[in-house]
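Minutes, structural biology subgroup

Action item carried over from last meeting: produce the C-alpha cell record for PNPLA domain-containing protein (Trichoglossum hirsutum). EB confirmed the sequence was re-checked against the source entry. Recorded below for completeness.
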Amino acid sequence: MNNSTSAAPTYFKPYYHAGKSQSYIDGTLQRNNPIQTLKEERRLLWKDKSPPDIILSVGTGIQADTEGTTKLVNKRHKIAKKLVPKGLIGKIAIGLDMIQSTLDCDRQWNEFMSFTKWDCDISSVCHCLNIGLAKQPPNLDDVAAMPSLKDEVEMYLCPEETRYLDKRYVSAHEHITVVARQLTAALFYFEEDRASTKEKCTDYLRCHLSAAMMSQFENLVNAGPSFHVQTCSSLLADTISPVFDLKVFSAKITFNRPESDQWIIEIYMHHWQSWEQISRLSNLQ
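Output recorded by EB:
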C-alpha cells in the first residue's frame, strides 16, 4: 500500500505487484482526496446505515492567507486544465504542479462536506486536519525545505496560533484536541447482554484495543472514564463509573431501558471539554 501511494509520476516508478501482475501508481491521479472512495467502501463493508464514528482526513499543507483562508486557484491553473487532455490532469497535478494538487484535495473535501452539512450526526464527526502555509508547498523532492517547513508547522500547531483553515475552531490545536477526544471515545462500544429485560438494559462496555495493548488500555482506565445514557431530548441516568476488567477490556453496566429507540452512550474523561459518543460498532471483526 505505501509503495503504491508514494509512486508519484515523474518522481517514482510505478509499483509492480508480482503476485497480481499489476502496476500501481499514486491514487491522486484519480482522487487527490480519497474521501469519496472511503464513503463507497464503507457502504460495502458495513451494510447498516448508522453514521460513522469519525471521518478523519489528514492533509500535507496548503497555502493560506493571513486569515487562514486557502488561496484560490489562479487563471494560469484554470487555463492549463482546459488545454490538457482530461486523462493527463492528474499527472500534471501530482508531478508538475503541487499547488493545484493541494487545492484539488481541499475542493474535494469541501464538496463532500457540502452534502453532509445538514446532517449533524455526520458533519460533527468529519474532520480535515491540515496546515496553512504562508507560501506554496515545496516540491516532493525539495529536501532542503524540510527544516523551515518543520518550524512553520510547529508554530502553526501552537495553542496560541489563531490563523486556522477550519472556521469551526479557533486554532489547529483546538481542532486536534476535538479529534483526539472523538478517536478515544470511538475505542469504546457496548454489547447488550441476554440478561436484559424490557425495563432494564444490562450491557458490557468493551474496548476495540487488541489484547496486546494492555498498557494502553490501562492508561485509558486510569484516566477515569465516566459514561451516561443520552436520548435526543434528555439525559436518562446518573453518571456511570464502571470498573473495568483489565484482562478482557470490559465492564458490566445496568441502567433503565430508554423509552425511545434513539439513544446513545457517551463518555467523559478528566479535562475534556465535552462528552463524546462511543462507537456505534459493536464488533469490528
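Discussion: The first strand starts at residue 15 and ends at 17.
Next step: EB to file the record with the rest of the batch.
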